[in-house]
Amino acid sequence: xxxxxxxxxxxxxxxxxxxxxxxxxxxxxxxxxxxxxxxxxxxxxxxxxxxxxxxxxxxxxxxxxxxxxxxxxxxxxxxxxxxxxxxxxxxxxxxxxxxxxxxxxxxxxxxxxxxxxxxxxxxxxxxxxxxxxxxxxxxxxxxxxxxxxxxxxxxxxxxxxxxxxxxxxxxxxxxxxxxxxxxxxxxxxxxxxxxxxxxxxxxxxxxxxxxxxxxxxxxxxxxxxxxxxxxxxxxxxxxxxxxxxxxxxxxxxxxxxxxxxxxxxxxxxxxxxxxxxxxxxxxxxxxxxxxxxxxxxxxxxxxxxxxxxxxxxxxxxxxxxxxxxxxxxxxxxxxxxxxxxxxxxxxxxxxxxxxxxxxxxxxxxxxxxxxxxxxxxxxxxxxxxxxxxxxxxxxxxxxxxxxxxxxxxxxxxxxxxxxxxxxxxxxxxxxxxxxxxxxxxxxxxxxxxxxxxxxxxxxxxxxxxxxxxxxxxxxxxxxxxxxxx
Amino acid sequence: xxxxxxxxxxxxxxxxxxxxxxxxxxxxxxxxxxxxxxxxxxxxxxxxxxxxxxxxxxxxxxxxxxxxxxxxxxxxxxxxxxxxxxxxxxxxxxxxxxxxxxxxxxxxxxxxxxxxxxxxxxxxxxxxxxxxxxxxxxxxxxxxxxxxxxxxxxxxxxxxxxxxxxxxxxxxxxxxxxxxxxxxxxxxxxxxxxxxxxxxxxxxxxxxxxxxxxxxxxxxxxxxxxxxxxxxxxxxxxxxxxxxxxxxxxxxxxxxxxxxxxxxxxxxxxxxxxxxxxxxxxxxxxxxxxxxxxxxxxxxxxxxxxxxxxxxxxxx
Lengths: 485, 316
Ligand code: SF4
Ligand code: SF4
Ligand code: SF4
Hints:
heterodimer; A: about 475 residues; alpha+beta; 4-stranded mixed β-sheet; B: about 325 residues; alpha/beta; two-stranded antiparallel ribbon; 11 helices; 9 strands; binds iron/sulfur cluster
């Protein structure tokens, strides 16, 4: 039996590794996506002061620190039984939009986008942001760098620090109001981001949607997976990143369940596998049937496409129009095409900019009323949508407001079963008779890059692509082929 | 080092959150200056160079290796040793590598307790067969391997010899630029120095310090902050006096006390002990310190693994 090892693949809140097994014919038998690392936050958060949790938990991920900070802040609000005043909520959500602007820009232009903009079969040394700049022009390259930095800057103004912000660690509040001057600076950046988001969608249109080869690729069997979908929605069932209830739809797009954060344990269960440090979540009521798609298995997906599938639409006009266009182009809801994650991500980029503009021009945003008094410490669950999907923090506090128990289900974890299957399906569709080429590797990589499993560090624009190596061993474990890019 | 020759840089991350890598990216266009003067020969998050390629490099062929993250498992320990062997200068980059950061709080327990929580106890986990991740496991198709998770988190300097330190969680972007400039121009301080900043956070803090006396310890959400009085004077623990600055007191400017991510202040060996003594000197009564509810998590949030305490002793 042949074995293919891809190690290391890059960042998924740490490290990742792919192992693909071939059968006697050289076709793909099974694929394993392993996370070789654990840091143990759920244990060492025990005993910590409640207000330290929004400081400690962002250290789970330096790419998504704002999401952890916010989920943690909301879990504390719930645990102290306090609602932040409206202006504080708006400041938090505005900061959260800044994080989306940063993160989605990063993924589209530096990580996922080059596959399309430069082309899936372009030479590897071109498939990065430099290649994007070459194709789209230096002016555009500068715009990309500028808008990524704007997202960070908005977070820094509101959060104190861009990576590991601190402002929302007070239950029921936000550390400080913003000045009119700061508000104006944010508004200027947000307006620019809005134009940039529109431009990005147009770029996607011109380069991807007008090219039938790409559209066929998006719709192809190797990149299609029929699963449940999950995402946070507002009271009108529109996508919301910061607040609301979690909605799950089945593979036919019908609502399966809608639950409030504190009910998450009725819906989600996680399983432990001996070959990976990451747990595998699934829908409790459906159960775990292994790595198979369809309504009989509780596998669900989160993140941009998961959210759009789980919702009835977008809460802002321009994003709503794009939402409708995506579903009519791809044949209605839900869309099961993994590569459509990229399109969904850009629609969300537009929504984040529109929503940020609403918030930053809201007269209440400079209000000094940013704190409410917390009640007695107890138990609370906080849920937000991280860029990569639903993020759950669950705390039990003791009477001194120290953490007694902590449970965390982080965004990319929900997608692990889906990532495993997408890699396997792409590999199955592309590797035949043990033959693996560089082009095939690129395509396998695209199957999981769509999920954006958190390796922002590939933004280093001189090289700007993830490392990938596949080793093929024969049944005696002799290395017979090595492909690198 | 000859001026005409480009330096060889390496970046590596161990038990890390990735924030340190983002801090490098956030120097934005300055990365171009770095690339003009240095070749990056290893950076797993960005480049196609594998562990075995590093193994094949001659010893001391990397000029400067920036290592972020703590040492939590066998693979990270192996890479620390390998990179030490291959590098002339090894820099501990960020609080995790320097002091263990929050990952080091894992030293309050051991592997067994951490696994118990993650894989059995958490309420969303269903594990009737008592499965835990194994370093080697046979699946129907073959064998899968995982690194070994250690009982104790170690800093980089507890694992191998380290030349320089850049603390901070993550290191503040302007300090990253300073450090890179110092390295590129060859203007390095003596071995063992911290390249962050030689003052404390209090020195950069805009809050007014008058008569520091603490009569009662309060939590941040219990005070009516006037946005200008020193937090310590308001009874809220602020790690500013015991913490190395360089961050421009970012948290204080956002009205949140310093939690100590810059690591021990200059000339301080043990950050927690330094804070406790600073605290004791302004407390009106020795009993005040007993009001601190989580002394380890409060005073050693980022430095437990590198403190005199280092870890809790676990008896069977
Ligand atoms: S030092 Fe801080 S930013 Fe750097 S890896 Fe550790 S936790 Fe992340
Ligand atoms: S103790 Fe904290 S608030 Fe007081 S001066 Fe120092 S850094 Fe500022
Ligand atoms: S104020 Fe303290 S916690 Fe905040 S960045 Fe500076 S050193 Fe770190």
